[in-house]
Specification:
By secondary structure, this protein is mainly α. The chain folds into 2 domains: 10-72, Winged helix-like DNA-binding domain superfamily/Winged helix DNA-binding domain (Arc Repressor Mutant, subunit A), CATH 1.10.10; 77-208, GntR ligand-binding domain-like (Four Helix Bundle (Hemerythrin (Met), subunit A), Up-down Bundle), CATH 1.20.120.530. Helices cover 70% and strands 5% of the residues. The chain contains 9 helices and 3 strands. It has a 3-stranded antiparallel sheet. Helix 4 (77-97) crosses helix 7 (143-164), helix 5 (103-117) runs antiparallel to helix 8 and helix 8 packs antiparallel against helix 9. The chain starts with 9 loop residues before the first helix and ends with a helix.
């Protein structure tokens, strides 16, 4: 018997379609995005279209100018420089807060990293990378810390998408994940913290030559 899966919500389908257009450069910074146009182009309703645009504004993909509507946001190196050090330090705090790492913990990290390594496109890579980082932070068993890092990672998604476009970059990041897990297995928290920080902060060097 074939497995059945629930249909993808219209809002999510719209969000994924619009993100893809922004990432591929089909829609550049400053392009106006109207709910009616989106609903018509994708043959979906106005309500999920509005919901998707509001969600994408919250994630930083769009800006909502009062009286004018939604526009594609420009990437900002200043924003990236504000985001990445905070995300890195929160995740380092999570790693320092982890007690004994169990074999089951390491198996989960390895499985999530393999899903990331085998991702064949930027969208899948971004999602799998996020799951791996959520799994790592989850080892600290601190709901407040997990929520804080998750919220900031949402804001960083559009920058991460740029990086995930390169298969070699995704492979290098997967290698770093593996090294972090090895350090945790060895009980070398200091090394794991250093590797986590480097995993995040290398993005600023990557973005510095691509974003103004």
């Amino acid at each position: 018997m074939e497995a059945t899966y629930p249909p993808i919500p219209a809002r999510k389908r719209i969000s994924e379609a619009l993100v893809s257009r922004v990432v591929r450069g089909v829609w550049g910074p400053g392009r106006q995005v109207k709910p009616g146009d989106v609903a018509g182009e994708l043959n979906l309703g106005m309500t999920p279209a509005r919901e998707a645009l509001i969600e994408l504004e919250a994630e930083g993909w769009l800006v909502n100018e009062q009286g004018r509507g939604f526009f594609v946001a420009a990437l900002s190196l200043r924003e990236a420089r504000e985001l990445y050090p905070v995300i890195a330090e929160l995740e380092c705090l999570a790693v320092r807060s982890v007690g004994a790492v169990t074999p089951a913990d390491l198996e989960r990290l390895a499985a999530r990293n393999e899903e990331f390594r085998s991702a064949t496109d930027p969208g899948a890579g971004l999602e799998a990378d996020g799951v791996w980082h959520e799994t790592l932070v989850g080892l600290a068993d601190n709901a407040t810390l997990a929520d804080a890092t998750r919220r900031l990672r949402v804001r960083a998604r559009r920058y991460e998408y740029t990086y995930m476009s390169g298969p070699a970059d995704r492979a290098a990041s997967s290698d770093e994940h593996h090294a972090i897990a090895l350090a945790l297995r060895a009980g070398d928290v200091a090394a794991a913290v250093d590797l986590v920080r480097r995993n995040w902060m290398k993005m600023l060097d990557y973005l510095a030559v691509r974003v103004r």
